[in-house]
Amino acid sequence: MSSDKKPLNLSLTRRAVLKAGVATAAVGAAPMIIPSKAWGYANEPSGSTVTLGFNVPQSGAYADEGADELRAYELAVEHLNGEGDGGMMSTFSSKELKGNGILGRKVEYVTGDTQTKPDAARASARSMIEKDGAIMITGGSSSGVAVAVQALCQEAGVIFMAGLTHSNDTTGKDKKANGFRHFFNSYMSGAALAPILAANYGKDRRAYHLTADYNWGYTTEEAVRTSTEAMGWDTVAAVKTPLSQTDFSSYVAPVQASGADILVLNHYGANMVNSLTSAVEFGLRNAQSNGKNFEIVVPLYSRLMAKGAGENVKGIFGSTNWHWSLTDEGSKAFVKSFGTKYGFPPSQAAHTCYVQTLLYADACERAGTHDPCGVAAALEGFEFDGLGNGPTLYRAEDHQCFKDVLVVKGKENPSSDFDLLEIVEITPRDKVSYDASIFGGELGACNSG
Amino acid sequence: MELSAILLQVLNGLDKGSAYALIALGLTLIFGTLGVVNFAHGALFMIGAFCAVSLQKILTISFTTIDESKTDFLGNPAQIHTPYVEKWFGEAVGATMIDWAVPLAILLAIPVMLLVGFAMERGLIKHFYKRPHADQILVTFGLAIVLQEIIKAYFGANQIPAPAPDALIGSFDFGVLLGFDPGTIIYPYWRIVYFLFAMVVVGAVFAFLKFTTFGMVVRAGMADRETVGLLGINIDKRFTIMFGIAAAVAGLAGVMYTPINSPNYHMGMDFLVISFVVVVVGGMGSLAGAVLAGFILGILESFASMREVIQLIPGINQVVIYLAAIVILLARPRGLLGRKGVMES
User: Which residues span the domain enclosing A369?
Assistant: First the structure.
């Protein structure tokens, strides 16, 4: 029996190899995320439920902060589905949310562990989008994670509602059309803190910065330096410290002899707890320099960090996005709801995550669709109130929320484990606003998948 | 660069070096006696620190009363928590006990760490004596992860402050003592205590090995285990005790370190890699080498953190220990005080 098939030619030419290489590269360069896209947009819900993806650190150094974020998300889902006391839904200026889920669909959720590592966070977000059909991803406690996951969500065509991320870059040079941030940023911290520092410590001061050696540290140092130097302060030195550093004594010890009379700790989390502990240990809080009392400043405070630092935070200024002791109706409703369910007040991370979930749901209702481009359009330029920070704008140009910023101080006589910070000043939003173009970056076009 | 700045960094290096030396001493003891590369040793340091945290929590176990005149964050009558020790021993004595929780934790840490050491050695590590070093590293590293996850599950991931007693908070001005301007060489009291404590522990371990019969047998076993066994001495039992002692040394280093860095579940891992570098630089199996290398590398790390040095060589603060290790090992391949034949085939 004969065959007219040609024998398979296995010999490879240089041209064939090059073609194969180009084809492989093209496949590799194509979008790697393949969410389900039945009709119009990625992961469009077809049944009676809609799935949200909560991507928070469940392991690693920020696991406690992540646990508080998750509590807030669970509470938000309860409220959206009409369970519990409704929390901030009753104080929110928009009245679209009725407690019947989102667009009549019951809200369900899946969770992922960011591990506070960009790669792990992207992997867990990808899994929630591809396998679980999550239509929105939210959460996180790090700017590195936020920037990485935001880029992935842009690529996948889902909305990203950032959790705790403070770097200017998240809505600056790395901003994306599908990403939105409610939390404040380094620039706002600097702008809010500088006048208070000048009023309390004077305008003739010499500052020494210790800065965590990564993106957030740089933007925070720059923001605080710019704002304080504009007030008349002089910057003696700025030293970068490794993120893995645990004992800061060798960085703190030379500060007093440098001629500085202010130490600014551009550190967060364990870095902040350890550097502040070293600074207090070396007597800086009680020291005199240039004929003035030596002072320490922590630009970004969180209650969980303050708890780790213990008594060392007393009297030290910093800024925060929100605090449970605020007395507006929205904050009171949220603290009551959260405190009744969990037995302690929420952190600022919990607050921003809860608010982001409500804002997303409300945007879907106002847009009448889950389509990311419709939701993004509803969020852009949205003015709202009643969510704990006073009148707030989701600016269209960079997807950054503009609202009042709190300047806080470590409390001298705390009455409990969570009563560690006192609000010194609520800086109005016009004092912390800036031109959207100053941090560069392009939003690009919205992607629906 | 001023002399005062140099002296300041030498002092800084001493307390860092003390911690490295204590951990590396324990590692070397275990390696020298049992031949085991113990990657769980950092976890022992961490468990020691959590002995201090635990004692602090025990001493602050409180009974609750309601104060109708105050309200909590939800507007309910405030709960006032009063530690039982203040009720049982009086307010002043109870408050002093809580204040001195960290030094008192030494009394808790010694038996706890000995038990943990015995349990670790008898329960797991003895089954790996004849296995390759790679297996020992894997099993002890796995054990370290399990231990830190247990601590995290119980105490959480955040750091927990465990401050020094009020009497030892503050710093001493060495500058004035040495004729420099005030405030140029200041050094916290607790770090002085830590350095002296480390010296006492190191001295006690050396004295124990040098001047007791038990120590003499252990040293003989470290030199030639087989011959000591042939003499009818149960060297394994003694080595198990040495494992417990090594665990206690690491644990005590951890207890006293808590006021310097508020402990969290990860603190052991932070010290582990550097401690291994210290052991290798000091010379595998050399106790004196471990202590010497601990201090040298601690001081070098402090110098590399100086602003002037970082400006001269950016990034040097992150790699100085490893650079120093390379230089020392190139010049002395067996480490500073390493002996021929240890870890050599």
Answer: 49-184+324-402
